[in-house]
Amino acid sequence: MKLRLLLLLGILGLTACASPQNGTLELLANGEDFARQPFTSKDGWTIDFEHVYLTLTAVTAYQTNPPFDAASGQMPTGTPLPHPDSPTVDLANPTRDDGTLLVGTIDAPTGHYNAISWEMAPLNNNPTIHLLGTATKDDQTIRFDIQVDQTYQYACGEYVGDSRKGFVDPDTTDNLEMTFHFDHVFGDADSDLSEPLNTGALGFDPLATLATDNELIATLTDLEANLTADQYATLLDTLATLGHVGEGHCYEFTNGYTAHETE
Amino acid sequence: MKQNNRGQRHLWLWLLPLLLLPTIAYAHGTVITLGIATPPTITINALYDTGEPMSEAQILVYAADDPRNAWHTGTADTAGNYQFDLDTNIEGQWSIAIRTAGHGEIRYLYVARNGDITLEQPEKRPLWQTALMATIVIVALLGIAWYYSSQGEKNHAHS
Predict the structure, then answer these.
(1) pLDDT for B158
(2) Could you tell me which chain B residue has the CA closest to the CA of A256?
(3) Closest in A65, A66, A160 to B99, CB measured
(4) Which residue among A167, A233, A235, B151 is the one 20 to 30 A from A252 at the CA level?
(5) Which residue on chain B is closest to A32 by alpha carbon?
(6) Cα–Cα distance between B70 and B77 in angstroms, integer?
(7) Which of A70, A59, A68 is nearest to A251 (CA)?
(8) 3-state secondary structure of A28
(9) Cα atoms in the 13 Å half-sphere on the side-chain side of B117
């Protein structure tokens, strides 16, 4: 009888060992200093965002083995952990001390989440991207309100930064970050102007010429109609390269990798 | 690589030409070339996809047994070159982050139980196969225990 009791306890013990223990995975968005603080574009405009709204959908974390390579141009094939909500976040106004915003939390099985995918799309009358702020050069200040309604789909590998992310242990919390590089669109006067970051960026001069009474209110359709074909193509290309994981590049399914234009 | 294993050292000599062939990953924006020079020395060449070197790129190496904390850190030279020695006693997946402002990539290396270093992950047994084998072993052990338990009770009843 004692042996049977021991056997039962053994089975219960094995069952307990097999039961997954969860932790918490936080999903963060980060617009870096370019979204939060004024910066100078490649053509000398001081860009100061009041709001940088992004509508994020289908945010999904993955554990992949072998590690997902964004250069594959595929979606991650590991165990997916989807986030059910589709929030609109404001990267210019972070909610956390480190400058990031909490997109959501997921009760997550333990392990290393080393890949993430997400989409940006118009939803519930919110555009995909909505940029509001001012651009100032010399004595001129232009208020801009630019709405983009295209859909973007990103697949990214592991976060690349000062530390690694995505390690979920039982009853602990870690995070994954979606990082957005707005210097790709406007350039950055603090970087070498001959670098691809700047040579491939649109800058603000082409947008400034479209302003009326120092105000630019435009949708992507408006910009397509009024920018030159090359300028519009550059805008589309650089918008598609916004999504990163820290410094790590992603694959964007309408454009390719999220690095600067190099031509 | 264990220094006292003469046979394996000779094997490396034969494999050396192959090991010196780098694997190149073209992640848009960066071109990171990892190589295994003389094991356990790992070489890194980090370039932007324009061909410019990732001058003074930050290098962070994470050992297989502690993936959260950097096991080794360093800075590439102006040509984007760096090298370091792995500890081949630490088996498993090693991770190497190479980054500059705005650019970065993580690459992986694998150290086998015998100390061999590979740039591709060795094939692993599928999870379902491992689970099936574990289940068979557990069921067999439970069966044996149950059998002896029954035998013990029978003997007890007879006495």
Answers:
(1) 57
(2) B28
(3) A160
(4) A167
(5) B102
(6) 20
(7) A70
(8) strand
(9) 30
